[in-house]
Amino acid sequence: KLPAFYANTVFLNVSNLSFRLQKLKEMFISKFGSAPKFYVRAPGRVNLIGEHIDYCGYAVLPMAIEQDILIAVEPVKTQVVQLANTSSSYLDFSTNVNNIQIDKTKPQWHNYFLCGLKGIQEHFGLNNPTGMNCLLDGTIPPSSGLSSSSALVCCAGLVTLRANGKTLSKVELAEICTKSERYIGTEGGGMDQSISFLAEEGTAKLIEFSPLRATDVRLPSGAVFVIANSCVEMNKAATSHFNIRVMECRLATKLLSKSKNLDWKNMLRLHDVQTKLGVSLEEMLTIVEEVLHPEPYSTEEICKCLGISLEELHSQILSQNMRDVSSFKLYQRAKHVYGEAARVLEFQKICSEAPANAVQLLGELMNQSYISCREMYECSCPELDRLVDICLQFGAIGSRLTGAGWGGCTVSMVPTDKLNTFLKNVKKAYYQTSVQRLALENTLFASKPGRGALVFVEA
């Protein structure tokens, strides 16, 4: 029997969820000697288009997926948080709730929980937050670009909120969890947390920032989105690739702003430049061509362009972990961001107007996005390149990497009548050629837009 939900959950695979909840409850009782009082669920997501532009201030277009993080919770009178995982791959962890320490050098699973916990604590200024016993179960493949880490942060934030008897809007929760995930060292932009809270069944979302808002995007009939895992793991917090791109975009913002006599010291995002200049995305692409050169910029050249010292560059603009980086590609990153931002808006427009060839047009945008990610943002990898080629070869109209890149998943738009053949052929061409890939679960699946995070209690 399913618990009584705060919201309708028919979008989920009910039989599977019921089984998971029962197993989770049994394991919880075995682990902690008592039953959980409530459960929290936060979904992963797939980004259909709009890669690496949320932290630049631009809208993105994701949808929630069925795979999720599920946590069973029992508030306790001690001020200790005990964390356990249904997977033996993740070690137990416990800490005093008044002494939260997040180790950026070790992005272990419990640190993501602590991010969400700390974010809620600090927002409300909780001096004596309640302790908790928590048991986590996850079905999002780790380090796959489907936002398992952000879903955990969101789940932990909602767990802490509920356990301490506090309330917030979904938008407030998304904004708090976006900021708190940065405790782990990832300079993300907010897409993952926003869709995890704001997603609704049956629709993708255009997520816009400053202020945060979500608009329904009805996807065309006649096609489905298929997620395929390259089986190359990528952890944003464990590598520098992601944060270097964030800094390159910030530096491009500074140089573009200074060239146009704007207050460049207070400009942080490429979107800010466009807003201040009051020009179109197409005009911004022209400005990038005029101002920035394709060759990498050295730190010395950047300092000369901005009229600052190397020490000022490191102390005022670059993050601490960028001190060993000596060159930055600004032209390529800015070109990708402005071009990708335009593709997102065009994708939404096509979905809204629903022309007869909508599926074909959307597929072309996805393909353009992938080429830009691969060539201008350089966030692909050989396995992703091969997987995209295979997906296009066997019937996908559009295919691209999704998530941070450098591993993780692709998302492909496939005509409904070709789905079964597509799945069979991709599995044979990519997964059955590797014993390691074939052994992994959740490597290839079709997905529909799912619901956002929620709390539910025992009936």
UniProtKB/TrEMBL annotation:
Pfam family, one: GHMP_kinases_C
Organism domain of life: Eukaryota
Domain Galactokinase N-terminal: 27-75
Catalytic activity, reaction form: N-acetyl-alpha-D-galactosamine + ATP = N-acetyl-alpha-D-galactosamine 1-phosphate + ADP + H(+)
One GO BP: galactose metabolic process
Gene Ontology terms, MF aspect: ATP binding; galactokinase activity; N-acetylgalactosamine kinase activity
Keyword terms, alphabetized: ATP-binding, Kinase, Nucleotide-binding, Transferase
Record-linked InterPro entries: Galactokinase, Galactokinase_CS, GalKase_N, GHMP_kinase_C_dom, GHMP_kinase_C_sf, GHMP_kinase_N_dom, GHMP_knse_ATP-bd_CS, Mevalonate/galactokinase
Gene3D superfamilies named in the record: 1.20.1440.340, 3.30.230.10, 3.30.70.3170
UniProt domain GHMP kinase C-terminal: residue ranges: 357-431
GO cellular component, one term: cytosol
Cited PROSITE patterns: GALACTOKINASE, GHMP_KINASES_ATP
Domain GHMP kinase N-terminal: 111-198
Protein EC: 2.7.1.157
Family statement: Belongs to the GHMP kinase family. GalK subfamily.
Quaternary context: Monomer.
Protein name per UniProt: N-acetylgalactosamine kinase
Annotated source species: Tauraco erythrolophus (Red-crested turaco)
